[in-house]
Specification:
2 strands; 3% strand; oxysterol binding; transmembrane; receptor; 8 helices; globular
């Protein structure tokens, strides 16, 4: 039986029943835990064999860290959707609820940084952009995380679900009343516009680079390292489009319809969490790249 939300003028129909929505969310987050954990473990082994002075490797390590921190909060989400009520403190609810937003936007920032570094490397015709010493990469990462912990996180957390009186303590992940604040509403619209604009620009640049490489290498492109590097960059853009676009497209509607089936917003947020599977897919892509290049080399040697 569908869940209905009554409104003054008409009736909004939620085509997905709340129990089905809970099932979808549980499935999403279980997938995130399993796939994300396997991806992190696999990437740790792969990174042990790579140059840690590489700026792109440093960006991937930081991406791995933010995925790992977020995954630690996912079991509490699953427990809530299974039990149907929040059994922990309200402050912990705020923390767990805010982490999915923090994870999404920090992942987005690291994706953009990673892709920007690769584009600079390509246009400057350098194989890699590296730090002079390994310690420099550690210092750079530490500086980024200090800024995140001292500036970004406090500013976000202090304004997220800060008014306890507006919410029920036995419920969690429903802080839509914060959107009623004009400053929060404007910030959301700006964020949506920035995400779409940045991803579209990155996609245009990436397609231009791939077309240029294919025009230069032609049939030999599949056996060339440079081509595969750009395919991996395209993969990260596709992750952003697949995982982040649906939420921001729905968000544009939800900002003015916060009372319409609020668990739809949770489902779209759950989709953003699937970005944790990027490292698993990246590792699989790296494996098939090596297999394909080995097969290409074997054919040429025959």
């Amino acid at each position: 039986m569908a869940h209905y939300v009554n409104k003054t003028a008409n009736q909004t129909i939620c085509f997905i029943p709340s129990d089905v929505a809970n099932g979808i969310l549980i499935a999403l987050y279980v997938t995130v835990i399993i796939g994300g954990t396997i991806g992190i473990i696999t990437m740790v082994f792969l990174l042990c064999k790579t140059n840690t002075r590489s700026v792109t490797t440093t960006a991937i390590i930081n991406l791995l860290v933010i995925h790992g921190i977020f995954i630690l909060t996912v079991p509490f989400r699953i427990a809530y959707y299974i039990q149907g009520r929040w059994i922990f403190s309200f402050e912990f609810c705020r923390f767990v609820s805010s982490m999915i937003h923090i994870h999404m936007y920090l992942s987005f920032i690291f994706y953009v940084a990673l892709l920007s570094i690769r584009y600079i490397s390509y246009f400057k015709q350098k194989d890699k952009i590296e730090f002079y010493r390994k310690m420099h990469s550690v210092v750079a990462s530490a500086a980024v995380w200090i800024i995140i912990l001292l500036v970004f996180l406090p500013a976000f957390y202090l304004n997220y679900g800060s008014d306890k009186q507006k919410y029920e303590t036995c419920k969690c992940f429903s802080f839509q009343k914060e959107i009623e604040k004009p400053s929060v509403l404007v910030l959301n619209y700006i964020t949506i516009a920035v995400v779409f604009m940045v991803v579209c620009i990155l996609l245009i640049v990436q397609i231009f680079i791939i077309m240029k490489i294919m025009k230069k290498l032609k049939r030999a492109a599949l056996g060339h390292q440079e081509f595969w590097v750009q395919l991996k960059s395209l993969f990260f853009i596709l992750v952003m489009i697949t995982c982040f676009f649906p939420y921001h497209m729905f968000r544009f509607y939800y900002l003015s319809h916060t009372n319409d089936c609020s668990y739809y917003n949770e489902i779209f947020l759950g989709i953003t969490a699937l970005s944790c599977l990027d490292l698993l897919s990246f590792a699989v892509q790296t494996y098939f790249q090596k297999v394909f290049q080995h097969m290409t080399c074997t054919v040429k040697c025959l």
